Every structure is written in C-alpha cells, then in structure tokens.
Amino acid sequence: MNSQTQDTNREDWLLWQFADSALPTGGFVASAGLESATQAGHVTNIESLLLFLSSSIENYAYSSLPFVTDTWWAVEIESSDDEILNYKENDSMNVIDKIMEKIINLDDLYDAYTSNYVTKRASKAQGVAMLTLFTKSFADNDSKTKMKDLVIEKFKLGVRKEISCGHLPICFGLVTKCLGISLERTQHLYLFLFARAILSAAVRLNIIGPYYSQRLLTECQAYVEKSLEKTCKLNSKAAVQTSPLLDILQGRHDKLYSRLFNS
Asked: Which of 33, 56, 82, 256 measures 20 to 30 Å from 242, CA to CA?
C-alpha cells in the first residue's frame, strides 16, 4: 500500500470517527434554536421543520463556514515531520506565532460578528471540546516537537488564559487541518454535523421519530450541497446572517420557561 492510499484511508477513517455520535464534542447539547422555535410556534409539523432545517443550514453556511475555511488556510505548515524536527526552536516558534496571530484575529472577528450571547456560549463550549478532543485523542504523544500539535496546544492555552475565545468554527478548521482532512471534506463534514445535531434535537423534542430523522438527514444532503455551492469559496469578511429570525430565536433560548438544551 503506497503512502497516498494510506493518507486517503486515514482521512476516510477520521471522517467516520467525526461522524460517530459517540465523539465527545458537545454538539448534541445544542438545538441551534429549534427548541426556542418550537415553543414559539414556528416549528409545529414536518413542513415547518423542513423549512427550519433548510434555513438553518443556509444561514450556518453563510455565517459560520467562511471562518472554518479561513482557519483551515491559516495553518500553513507544509514541511514534513523530519524537516520540522530539524527546525531550531526559535524558528519553529516564529512560525507558530504567525499562525496564532491569524487564528486569534479570526476568532476575535467571529466573536464580534456573533450577535447573541447564547450562540457565543454554545460556540465556545463546543470549540473547547474540539481542542480537548484533539489533545486527548489525536495528538502525537511520542513527539512533542511536532508543529501542528504545538499550534493547537498554544491556541488551547490562549483560550484558557482568555487571550482568545475558542469559537467552534475556528477550532473545527484548526483541528481538521492539523489532522490532514481536506478543505472540501472539512466543509461537508461541518455542515453535516450541524444538520445531524438539529435532527437529533428534533427527535428528543418529540417532533419526529428516530427512523424518520434518518430519512430527513438523507434529504438534508440537497440543502448542504446547495449551500456549499454558494459559500465554499467565501472568506470570513464576506460572512453574513441570512435569517435574522433564527438569530432572534437562538438568542431567546435562555428565556424559555423550561429547557432541554443549552442553546
């Protein structure tokens, strides 16, 4: 088996892991505003749920995916492991510092761009979970000098010190790039996980059953592909909210009389 085949097989395996509901990233504690929309009477049946799904995926693609894309490109480490090991310490830290500056700037921009504190809180919690997942499950423990591991360790330390917020789109783009997942697959995975989380919330809110949710998840491919066609090349400066109503519903989550989800 050649190295290219091994890399492809590893990427496929990582995608299966990320798609596994057992992956501890905290995505299932959020409903993306579905719980609030249900209690407010905006989602009452399958038709309104489909409208919520399509609108949410498009809004998420326009508002959040560009930050994933820019972060993925910000991690410009092209050297092989052998070359990295031969770097002088000062040289390697200069490379990391430059990457950190880009990532922190993107994180700050996303924090300023996100209008409601409920979405910010959920994004930070899931972002930290993503960083923790990498360091505990995927980092190379045999070589502490590897550049990509150091990038994530330094960013995670910055989040702990409150130098940076650690929002999910930034952490997701950072982790997938450091794991060697391609940009196209990173973008697809990001929107797939979002759609799956909404449908999981719909099941637990008793809007639909588990079997029908899988049928809807299959149909969500069309929503994801359509949104990706329009947003896969957008950068963070072009990010926009396409549905102000969704933003309002998400922001009102903490005011609900009773809550099953954190957001």
From this structure: 256
